[in-house]
Design brief:
Layout: H1 3-17, E1 24-28, H2 32-43, E2 47-51, H3 67-70, E3 74-75, H4 77-81, H5 86-109, E4 117-118, E5 122-126, H6 131-144, E6 152-155, H7 156-162, E7 172-176, E8 180-182, H8 184-196, E9 201-203, E10 208-211, E11 214-217, E12 220-223, E13 226-229, E14 243-253, E15 263-266, E16 271-277, E17 281-285, H9 299-312, E18 320-331, E19 338-342, E20 345-349, H10 355-370, H11 379-382
Helix pairs in contact: 2-8, 2-10, 5-10
The chain binds flavin-adenine dinucleotide.
Flavin-adenine dinucleotide binds near residues 234, 327 and 353.
């Protein structure tokens, strides 16, 4: 069956089960996708129940089970195209227009107006001895997106003009002006508050299994018109082809340095990124390890991350390490996302290291199926099995 005909078949299945829009919807998992979908479906006045294995209370450690809390919040279609494909790039470009809309909506719905999304671009730099890494990055970018012209090769003076606090040792870099970043933990927290104060029925500390039209919690099944499975890696017992890919981050705090945008450091062994966060904080990450080990950050990773950070700017030497975090990215074997449409059950998963980059495309695709739009957006990329 072709992708297109399987999509039509799936959409037909969904409408065969409910000829009109489903009224009672259960969402399993309140990470990134689950929260976004619950929010949007509640806005459309549907009856939503949200099941979460962990907690909504930020002070409880379980509330960080979602990979969404560990993520650095980069929305980086170009940088991620280099490690994925042109489809991810296209969905990422869609995200750049969608996130400002969502964050404005959330700001309007809440009491805070602190900016949550930033369109300041991102910077890729390499030390002079690693300049070939920068050239390779640009070559790979052109391989995936041959017509790519949305970045600029920049000199030391231009790097200093964009980010005066970076070390002056960087002779050349790339400025990816279309990229953005989110204050993602603040976004998730605000969205969580919004959900708790809405008509959405929240069931915390409730790990569930899912089936068509059913959610099974503690051996008891509850029926809904439609179930949406957003459990990320938590879906693995029912979705064997999923795997977890470990990532580690350091969070540091210093008032000595200001950055306006994420900075990636190209290095022969790893790519480090630093993303500015509120309160003079920065998230530093790099690691992508084929392991489902959730144990704390290793000494080697912490040394590599902190020494690379120090080379970005010696002023980081006085930064305080305030947190080290590890989590697992939910991924399929091809590292690409999938939205599976069945009768009474939709599952959206495999966002890998692109959760914030792909969430707008995935959420709008799911909503289009639920509201029976004739041509669900990004169907050819998302709805194949
Ligand atoms: C170190 C790191 C850095 C990252 N950086 C970025 C980045 O900069 N940009 C980007 O776009 N992406 C990034 N990501 C990827 C992003 O975090 C994920 O792709 C995204 O969070 C996946 O969203 P999700 O909703 O599918 O899963 P999650 O966010 O993991 O949410 C799943 C939720 O389901 C709940 N759950 C699990 N099992 C059950 C169950 N049985 N019943 C009920 N609830 C359950 C979990 O508790 C969790 O709350 C990063 C990831 C990591 C680990």
């Amino acid at each position: 069956m072709t992708t297109q005909s399987s999509t039509k078949q799936s959409a037909a299945n969904l409408s065969a089960h409910h000829s009109s829009t489903p009224q009672t919807i259960a969402i399993a998992g309140a990470g990134l996708l689950g929260r976004l979908l619950a929010w949007q479906l509640n806005k459309a006045r549907l009856d939503v129940t949200l099941f979460e294995a962990g907690s909504f209370t930020p002070s409880e450690p379980q509330s960080k089970r979602a990979a969404a809390f560990t993520a650095a919040g980069m929305v980086a279609p170009l940088s991620e195209a280099v490690v994925s494909d042109e489809g991810v790039y296209r969905m990422g470009q869609f995200a750049l227009t969608h996130w400002p809309r969502w964050t404005n909506q959330l700001n309007t719905d809440s009491t805070t107006t602190d900016p949550l999304f930033f369109s300041n671009g991102s910077l890729v730099v390499a030390h002079p001895q690693d300049a070939s890494e920068l050239e390779q990055f640009a070559r790979e970018l052109h391989f995936v997106i041959p017509a790519c012209n949305s970045y600029q090769q920049i000199t030391q003076t231009q790097i200093q003009a964009l980010e005066p606090d970076l070390s002056p040792n960087f002779q050349q870099g790339l400025f990816l002006q279309e990229e953005g970043h989110l204050h993602n933990r603040e976004f998730l927290r605000l969205l969580g508050d919004n959900i708790i104060n809405s008509a959405i029925k929240v069931r915390e500390h409730t790990a569930v299994d899912v089936a068509a039209g059913k959610v099974i919690a503690n051996g008891t099944a509850e029926e809904f018109d439609l179930v949406i499975d957003c459990r990320g890696l938590g879906a693995k017992p029912q979705m064997r082809q999923l795997r977890g890919v470990r990532g580690e981050t350091l969070h540091v705090e210093t008032s000595e340095i200001r950055l306006q945008r994420p900075v990636r450091l190209m290095h022969p062994r790893y790519q480090l990124y630093v993303v500015p966060k509120p309160g003079n904080r920065f998230i530093i990450g790099a690691t992508q390890i084929e392991s489902e080990d959730r144990s704390p950050v290793t000494l080697q990773s912490s040394l590599e991350l902190s020494s690379a950070l120090y080379t970005l700017s010696p002023a980081f030497a006085e930064a305080r390490i305030i947190e080290m975090d590890t989590n697992l990215r939910p991924a399929f074997m091809d590292n690409l996302p999938k939205v599976n449409i069945q009768d009474g059950l939709i599952s959206a998963n495999g966002l890998f290291r692109h959760g914030y980059l792909l969430a707008p495309a995935v959420v709008e695709n799911v909503l289009a199926h639920i509201f029976k739009k004739p041509e669900p957006i990004f169907s050819a990329l998302l709805n194949h099995h």
